[in-house]
Design a protein that fits this description.
Elements lengths: L11 H9 L11 H8 L3 H13 L3 E3 L5 E3 L1 H7 L3 H21 L2 E8 L2 E8 L14 E3 L4 H8 L3 H8 L13 H14 L2 E4 L7 E8 L7 E9 L6 H19 L1
Antiparallel strand pairs: 1-2, 3-4, 3-8, 4-5, 6-7, 7-8
C-alpha cells in the first residue's frame, strides 16, 4: 500500500507512482477499485490517472477489466544499473553453477527489508521454489536474504528483526536466534535455510563483494536443493568461486 497519497497536497506524480507501485509479485493484475484502494486514492482520481497511464503506455487494460504493467514500463525497469550491469556480469557464472548442479540458482540484491531477485535459473530437476525474476521475499526466510541481511546497516537489521513473519513451520521468527545466525553468517561466509521459505527446499548462499574479498557486499548468489546434508561444502565452494569472479568483474 502506498499510503498518504489521498492527503491534500499530494502531487500528481506521487499519486501516479502510488498506482504503479500498487503492483507487486502478489498483485500482478488489479481492477480499478483495487488500484484505488492499494494506492489510497479516491476512485475518481484513480480512474483519471489510470486512464493517463494507459494512454502513456505504462499500464494495459485487459478484456477482463483488470490492469497490468505494460511491457514498455518493464523495458524501462531493465535500464536500472543494478539490472543491466550485475546481471550481465553474473550470467556466465550463474550458468556454470546451474550446468553443474541442475538446481535452482539465484542472484539477488536487498531492497529495504526484502530480497529482490534479479535472476533465477532452474530446470526440470530443480526443487519447486516461489521466487521469480523481479519478485520480493522476506530477507529472514531465504538464503540470499540472510546473507544480505547479515551485511546490511544496523537500522535495516533492526527493522527486519521487528517483522520476522512465519512462512513455514521452520521459519526463524525469534530475533535472538536470528541475530545468532547473522553473526554466524558473517563469521563463516555463507548462509543456509532448511524449509524456511518452501517446504522440501533448502538453500545455501554467499555474498558478492564488489572488487574482491574486502569490498562492499552488493548482492548474493545462492542455490536451492532438496537437502544440504551431504553436498553443503561442495556447493559453498562453488558459490564462493562464482561470487569472487562476479565481484572481481564488477571492479
Amino acid at each position: 500500500m502506498a499510503g498518504n497519497t489521498s492527503v491534500p497536497g499530494a502531487s500528481v506524480v506521487s499519486r501516479s507512482l502510488a498506482l504503479l507501485f500498487a503492483f507487486d509479485d502478489q498483485h500482478r493484475r488489479l481492477t480499478l477499485s483495487e488500484l484505488a484502494r492499494r494506492a489510497d486514492l479516491p476512485l475518481p482520481t484513480a480512474y483519471r490517472l489510470v486512464g493517463e497511464l494507459v494512454a502513456g503506455g505504462a499500464l494495459v487494460r485487459r478484456g477482463s477489466g483488470e490492469y497490468v504493467v505494460a511491457r514498455r514500463l518493464w523495458q524501462v525497469g531493465l535500464l536500472a544499473p543494478v539490472e543491466t550491469g550485475l546481471r550481465e556480469v553474473a550470467a556466465p557464472f550463474l550458468n556454470d553453477i546451474h550446468a553443474a548442479t541442475r538446481a535452482t540458482v539465484h542472484l539477488a540484491v536487498r531492497e529495504r527489508t526484502e530480497v529482490l531477485y534479479l535472476e533465477r535459473l532452474s530446470g526440470r530437476a530443480s526443487v519447486p521454489v516461489v521466487s521469480t525474476v523481479g519478485s520480493r521475499l522476506p530477507l529472514h526466510a531465504t538464503g540470499v536474504g540472510k546473507v544480505l541481511l547479515a551485511h546490511a546497516p544496523d537500522d535495516v537489521v533492526e527493522a527486519a528483526l521487528a517483522q520476522l513473519g512465519r512462512v513455514t513451520p521452520y521459519t526463524v521468527t525469534q530475533p535472538a536466534r536470528m541475530r545468532e545466525q547473522l553473526d554466524r553468517i558473517r563469521r563463516d561466509g555463507y548462509a543456509t535455510t532448511v524449509e524456511e521459505m518452501t517446504l522440501g527446499a533448502c538453500s545455501v548462499a554467499v555474498p558478492i563483494r564488489a572488487g574482491g574479498a574486502e569490498g562492499r557486499v552488493v548482492a548474493a548468489v545462492g542455490i536451492v536443493v532438496p537437502s544440504l546434508k551431504r553436498d553443503r561444502p561442495r556447493l559453498v565452494a562453488a558459490l564462493q568461486v562464482a561470487a569472487q569472479g562476479i565481484g572481481r568483474s564488477l571492479g
